[in-house]
Protein: Nitrate reductase
Amino acid sequence: MNSVHTTCPYCGVGCGVVAQREANGAVSVHGDTQHPANFGRLCVKGAALGETTGRQGRLLYPEINGERASWEAALDEAATRLRAIIDTHGPQAVAFYASGQLLTEDYYAANKLMKGFIGAANIDTNSRLCMSSAVVGYKRAFGADAVPCSYEDLEQTDLLIFVGSNAAWAHPVLYQRIAAAKQARPEMKIVVIDPRRTATCDIADLHLALAPGSDAGLFVGLLNALAGELLPGRFDGQDAALAAAREWDVARVAAFCGLAHSDVARFYDWFLSMPTAMTLYTMGINQSSSGSDKCNAIINVHLASGKLGRPGCGPFSLTGQPNAMGGREVGGLANQLACHMGFEPADIARLGRFWGSERIAQTPGLMAVELFEAIGRGEVKAVWIMGTNPAVSLPDSDAVRQSLSRCELVMISEVAAKTDTSHFAHVRFPAQGWGEKNGTVTNSERRISRQRPFLPAPGETRPDWWIVAQMARRLGAGEAFGWQHPQEIFCEHAALSGFENDGTRAFDISGLAGLTREAYDALSPVQWPVTATMPAGTARLLTEKTGWRGGRLAMVAVVPALPQARPDARYPFWLNTGRIRDQWHTMTRTGTVARLMQHQPLPRVSIHPDDAVREGVREGDLVDVVSAQGFMVAWVALSEAQQPGALFVPMHWNAHFATRGRVNALVAPVCCAHSGQPESKQTAVRLQRRHTHWQGELFCRALPALPSELLWWRQAQHGCEHYTLAGVTSPQGWLCDLATHAGWQIQYAEGAGAFHLLAWRDGELMLAFYSGARRPEIQPEAVATAFSEPPACALARHALLAGKRAGNAPAKGRIICSCFGVGENAIRAAITAGCVSTEQLGESLRCGTNCGSCVPELKALLAQAASLSEAANQTGRGERVALEPGEEILPRQARR
Ligand SMILES: Nc1nc2c(c(=O)[nH]1)N[C@H]1C(S)=C(S)[C@@H](COP(=O)(O)OP(=O)(O)OC[C@H]3O[C@@H](n4cnc5c(=O)[nH]c(N)nc54)[C@H](O)[C@@H]3O)O[C@H]1N2
Ligand SMILES: Nc1nc2c(c(=O)[nH]1)N[C@H]1C(S)=C(S)[C@@H](COP(=O)(O)OP(=O)(O)OC[C@H]3O[C@@H](n4cnc5c(=O)[nH]c(N)nc54)[C@H](O)[C@@H]3O)O[C@H]1N2
Ligand code: SF4
Ligand SMILES: [Mo]
Structure:
């Protein structure tokens, strides 16, 4: 079978992937060495892509009210009901909610239908939660949503600043590229600005653990420090921006941000003295009630210092989703029209001419948070959700659920059979997923790459654009949606980008408008603009002096504002939310892969050890995290990386993976006034200990009905179902009843608060259960294996009852390296045996040698061991015996 060059469907790095379907149906992937985004590297999520394909968990057929239906029936039903709502209540009563997971062609089609033919601008996207502040920032500064930089700039810069970005986990391949550049040029300085000490800090020369939400103060102060370098009148808005910054000297900044005076001064000194600098910013900046101003505070200092439009310079907003940028190009946000056009009369008229429609939306539509509020009030009566899971990812998600449950018509286009959002849908359209669908995506550096199909589409799944086009036909707009292939959509989009453009709109890919199907299929990754004058694309979008529309670059006056959320006596903690290394968003794809579940299998609330003492909670306790909005249940994890008073919870868990694991139940729907982006990074909360009498692990072939009082967490596992459970009433009763009812033989052990049970049918393991006052220390992989390879002897069965493998195979502990399944225990053992570097650990255990995402954690374990042994030496206890040169206690290659 031939291999296919395609693009990873996860983050905005946009790595090239070579995928191959083996004769047995298995899918193998590796990094595309030719792709300029990754040159062959993949992170663990990308490397596990082959494990996410297949039919399991997929939505395969259209459904009406939960019943399988034909495409004809489902489309007719949806169109008839949509038409009726539009006829009765007008086009503003319907909305689409789309996603940066869609391909550009899908996105273009959805935007065209809503804004061009239904005639309202009520199409918004999950990019509202993600990039919208960055878009406002660029537009205000450059007159266009124009990301000025390229990845290659990262390798050429003298000073690289990560602000509100945990790139080591969220943009791993890019981070590895930066780490390699730093290794090659150690004089390159790296600054991380984040209230938490994250894995990204691993390569930092300076970590500024500022107070939550205080970044604007830091950058406004930097502008003040730069003021002397600026010639008067260089930029629009310059005087006002400088005036707003005037009072912000280092002392005031240090107090505002809760930082040491010397650290702020050092950061400013580096920025002023280094010839080049880049600022990489993501959700710690964008997801803020003053996110747009924070973006401009960053851009201002690049303008003021001239660190823009040159190699190794620029304010670089990293995009999150695989096609967040594509969505911005097609106009997927409710306050834009297509191809970087706005709602100026000339733009509306131009679009009407190009699309041949007299029904172009005249005014901006509802932004994500407003949109779901309008659904809740009954003003919007129909919503079509494509490729996003708002019941999990929007703030105040309990209210979002209520809105959806009241909505007259909810339609979804999905790849997963069951999601929190699809639960509310009346009509479900099965979409083609990665490996099946065909089109383009654009990454953070404006690089357009092809996603190419290499798998047959399962069931009756269809491309997202096709579903939209079918709907358009039924709404009477068929002619404008008559495409037969995504290449036709792409060429139309490319032509529109150049239509009456004349250099007025930054986004111009008219150079690709004439692609034949063959050329489209063969398209190499290329950075826009792509025009007649720049046929091979454009690496750097702005020069030092000119922006778009005649050199108008602007500064924005920023008055640093603190978050709207404010801890108080009732809710004393700051709650921060974000990503973990191996999960993607609402887990519909990564949550099914055992390998990706091992690193952090449970929703944890990270807390500083001092706070834990004050709150009377210990590692592994269960707590309710409570805000004025709602609550969730999480496992306590002590972490020195947290600053006192601040907690962190991942955004990923939801009703399909946990009881009350959804952090957005807590987050208030407070948004930036300019961008509409919610303040997802700051919420005031309190902790409440949850009293359970036991915690346990359940392994089974199929999940039995659980008593309703139990708390459960689903973990992906090979060959069986695996649930972590916790409860109050003893589990013995229902488990024994269950087994007796099913006619299984049981074997159990109890004592000292522990209860273990195995249930068998004809020598086959049906269920294994382990509980204690705390989560029992068992070997999950050993138990899971017993479902396919039942233990052969009494000794092995005995070991299984203890939750272990027979013999002396040690428990793996927490899995650190997901690529090779290397656990914490083996790593600690190797360190004890003499490994002193990540390279040595890699040689000995292979950990960290593939994607590299776990290297920061390996370093942390090494550092921890080193500081422990140092402390032991200082107190004279536990003295380490110095090894003689040549003395070997590990496999030879591990010690040089
Ligand atoms: N593994 C993984 N990778 C992903 C994704 C995923 O789901 N999983 N999703 C992708 C998407 S869509 C996106 S948008 C990106 C997001 O990528 P990132 O923005 O890097 O990820 P987050 O974890 O959301 O948040 C980044 C950091 O912001 C910090 N932060 C919180 N509050 C503040 C603050 O007030 N100031 C500053 N300076 N920092 C603060 C947090 O502590 C956190 O470390 O990741 C992409 N990559
Ligand atoms: N508290 C908090 N909340 C946050 C964030 C945070 O940091 N903190 N981050 C925000 C950010 S930056 C983002 S981007 C959002 C992400 O939030 P969501 O967009 O809600 O998350 P996903 O899980 O990516 O949802 C994508 C859905 O589309 C489906 N899907 C995948 N591929 C396709 C396809 O090709 N076609 C179709 N039709 N469907 C497909 C998936 O199964 C899944 O259900 O969350 C936001 N919410
Ligand atoms: S860094 Fe990882 S998730 Fe992001 S595109 Fe590359 S392989 Fe995919
Ligand atoms: Mo995102």
